[in-house]
Amino acid sequence: MTAEYQVHGAVAVITLNNPPVNGMGLVTRTAAVKGIQQALADDAVKAIVITGAGKAFSGGADIKEFNTPKALAEPSLHTLIATAESATKPVVAAIHTVCMGGGLELSLGCHYRVALPGAQIALPEVKLGLLPGAGGTQRLPRVLGLEPALNMIVSGNPVSSEKLPALFDEIFAADADIVRSAVAFAEKIADLRPLPKVRDRKVDYPNHEAFLQFSRNTVKAMAGPFPAPLECVETVAASVTMKFDDGVKFERERFMHLIQTTESKALRHAFFAERVASKVPDVPADTPVRAIKSAAVIGAGMMGGGIAMNFLNAGIPVKLLETRQEALDKGIATIRKNYESSLKKGKLTQEKLDQRMGLLSGTLSYDDIGQADIVVEAVFEELAVKETVFRKLDEVMKPGAILATNTSTLDVDKIAAFTKRPQDVIGTHFFSPANVMKLLEIVRGKETGKDVLATALALSKKLKKTGVVSGVCDGFIGNRMIEQYSRQAGFLLEEGALPEQVDKAAEKFGFAMGPFRMGDLAGNDIGWAIRKRRYVEKPEISYSKTADLLCEMGRYGQKTGGGWYDYQAGDRKAYPNEAVNAMIVRHSADLGIARRKISDEEIVERLVYALVNEGALILEEGIALRASDIDMVYLTGYGFPLHRGGPMFYADTVGLPNVLAAMNKYAKGHQGQAWRPAPLLLKLAEEGKLFNS
Ligand code: 3HC
Questions:
Q1: What is the reported pTM?
Q2: CB–CB of 524/556 below 8 Å?
Q3: Which of 59, 189, 405, 564 could cross-link with 516 by S-S, CB 3.0 to 4.6 Å?
Q4: 528 with 454, same domain?
Q5: What are phi and psi of 635, to 5 degrees?
């Protein structure tokens, strides 16, 4: 029973009760239908109120049930809505806090809607690659009008209840008791007949064809690889061009089509992956967290400045520490410049800018940062430099302060061992630009305290980041995997491809940027420094020397005016460089390789499967807790195409035996030893299982 039934005088109140957000799963739907039937059968009841318990009216259909038999089992959402709409006694939806998707569709099937102000009203299905599938595309335009309804359905964005007067028969005072007020409303309208039904209304929009055509063109241009937004337009169009029942039938058909698409499955995967990433099996949800009311950041360079901005944006005061006044001034000026640029774009008010800058102070002395609740170190990526910093932090920081390192590759356990409080040390690996990128890799050292980990996870939410936990290994989840991707990119150059072809193939697949454009943006010298260290430590690992040769030419990337490509001032476009391409061809000849034509398909497979195979090793070693965490890292930190759901999800959709077959094929080619399938991949492929089961 996930809906409660109570009678208040002559009004029956059905309260959806399926925490956390009253998703309309089968059990809830069944209980709600029963409630309506019970109320109709009771002569003492004159009207019915439907509301939701806890923190939502309803978050919509239960997305955990999608693609399971429960989703279609009767009573369906359609049946529930039809039961409410055809009831012979008035049904009132009493809305508060959150009313989304199927929840809003249910309320549109009710005869009346009342609400508290501030309730978030949305048809967000498009964000899951879907369209409202329980009459929403037909009823919302009948209530709000064509244009506002189309905007809500195509964007999926929430609108506050008080901004939608056409949707509600009454909006109560903010401090009203929703049930008591709704019951009073129901008593008032209990005897009114006929019962108003949204389905009986008409959508009037003069010259609707021109508007719809304009919408199709605009939405098509914005939708990218996702089919749902355009399907939303077509189904909303049906609210004008078709009879109500035909429109609902058409909507259902398009919904059933979309729910099977990989794009929708990928979006739903990402929705749950983001939420589950904050759950760590041995760190229960009630683990106490440490209060983070102040922060310090060591290093005012690009990374340190970006990290500081995250805290400032969240209202947490920051002390920025540098060794030289000049560097400190430059760091603070850059932060101000970034905020001023947001101000110019209208994304920030002057008041907010002043507020944020007011929370920032600079210092050259460690003595000034000792009282911070957390300190994040963002200094040069070298263990000896980190050692100096952490020994100093151990001296000056108050007991209980969290000591975080922004290292992207170094051993967090070694860094923790520079202190006498390894339980307080954790990795917080931000991604550049740190004030923009969503990903925060949270690196759990072997001695990191559970409360420190729980605090870092809570902090990531406060900073509006997607926190993903990684164990300690060289490069953690993201950079360890990208190394294999970069290796393949290098081998592809040796065998016959040029940077432009590799990048174009990767970008056509959906990557925000191909590997070589990415290298030019990040700085090829960074990878060079890492390779010098890594391949001295691991001489058995082969890699293409092409990128080293590029660096030897002094071509570090955009910052030196050119890398794999040339760049022109005021333009981020990449122009192929003849000398670089000649160097690549010469290098193949030096290696005795006869260059061949490589297909885009091979390029994409080799880049992506290299990620997948390393991801499988990472999963097997317990560095990542689950495959979906790896997907989150790639979706939020490395520009992996969202519509493909992340590398591990993508491999699942391709089929693991197919991935394996391709890897075996490449194992017979140039540098084939790089393709040693991870035992987990072999096992899952053999058992017909998936990474994300
Ligand atoms: N079904 C099942 N579970 C849901 C859910 C849903 N519709 N919406 C949220 N949840 C779960 C989340 O997975 C999470 O679970 P967890 O605690 O186990 O991790 C929990 O509810 C809380 O979610 P959030 O962390 O997102 O909590 P917030 O308070 O920040 O946000 C929310 C609440 C605004 C409802 C947000 O969760 C949200 O946007 N949910 C998606 C709503 C949605 O897309 N609804 C449409 C569903 S499709 C539909 O209705 C089809 C119909 O047209 C036929």
A1: 0.94
A2: yes
A3: 564
A4: no
A5: -75, -35
223, 224, 225, 226 alpha-carbon torsion, rounded to 10°? -20
Residue 253 shares a structural domain with residue 304: no
Q: Are 154 and 229 in contact (CB under 8 A)?
A: yes
Number of structural domains found in the chain: 3
Q: Which residues line ligand 1 (CB under 6 A)?
A: 20-21, 23, 59-64, 77, 98, 100-102, 105, 124-125, 128, 132-134, 136, 272, 275
d(CA 320, CA 66): 48
Q: Are residues 305 and 454 in the same domain?
A: yes
Cα separation, 482 vs 475, whole angstroms: 9
Q: Identity (one letter) of the amino acid at 222?
A: M
Q: Under a CB-based contact definition with an 8 Å cutoff, are residues 57 and 119 in contact?
A: yes
Which atom of ligand 1 is closest in space to residue 64's alpha carbon?
Answer: 2
String of b and e for 111-150 (b: at least 16 CB within 10 Å)? bbbbbbbebbbbbbbbbbbbbbbbbbbbbbbbbbebebbb
Catalytic option among 105, 251, 494, 605: 105
Catalytic residue status for 507: no
Q: Closest ligand 1 atom, CA of 279?
A: 19
Q: Which domain holds residue 420?
A: 295-470
Q: Do residues 54 and 20 make contact, with C-beta atoms less than 8 angstroms apart? A: yes
Which residue has the least CA distance to atom 17 on ligand 1? 20
Q: What is the mean pLDDT of each run of 10 residues along the chain (693 residues)?
A: 92 97 96 98 98 97 90 96 98 98 98 98 98 98 98 98 98 98 98 98 92 97 96 98 98 96 97 96 96 98 96 98 97 97 96 98 97 96 94 98 95 98 98 93 98 98 98 95 96 98 98 95 87 76 92 93 91 92 98 97 98 98 98 97 98 98 95 94 97 91
Q: Are residues 429 and 488 in the same domain?
A: no
10 Å Cβ neighbour count for 566? Answer: 17
Which of 63, 70, 78 to mutate for ligand 1's pocket (most ligand atoms within 8 Å of CB)?
A: 63
Choosing from 125, 274, 495, 602, the catalytic residue is 125
Residues 244, 305 within the same domain: no
- Distant-in-sequence, close-in-space partners of 154: CB < 8 Å, separation ≥ 6: 126, 215, 219, 229, 232, 233, 236
Torsion angles phi and psi, residue 321, rounded to 5 = -110, 135
CA of 189 to the centre of ligand 1 (A): 32
Residue 91 belongs to a domain: yes
Q: Does an H or E element contain 51, and which?
A: strand 47-52
- CA end-to-end span of the chain, whole Å? 28
State both tokens at 425: 């040390």
**Is 125 a known active-site residue?**
yes
Q: Is the dihedral of CA 463, 469, 474, 480 positive or negative?
A: negative
Name the residue of 16, 18, 21, 108 whose CB sits within 8 Å of the most ligand 1 atoms, as the mutation to test its pocket. Answer: 21
Q: CA 692, CA 4: separation in Å to the nearest integer?
A: 35
In sequence order, the 6+-apart residues with CB closer than 8 A to the CB of 384 are none
For residue 272, the ligand 1 atom closest to its alpha carbon is: 13
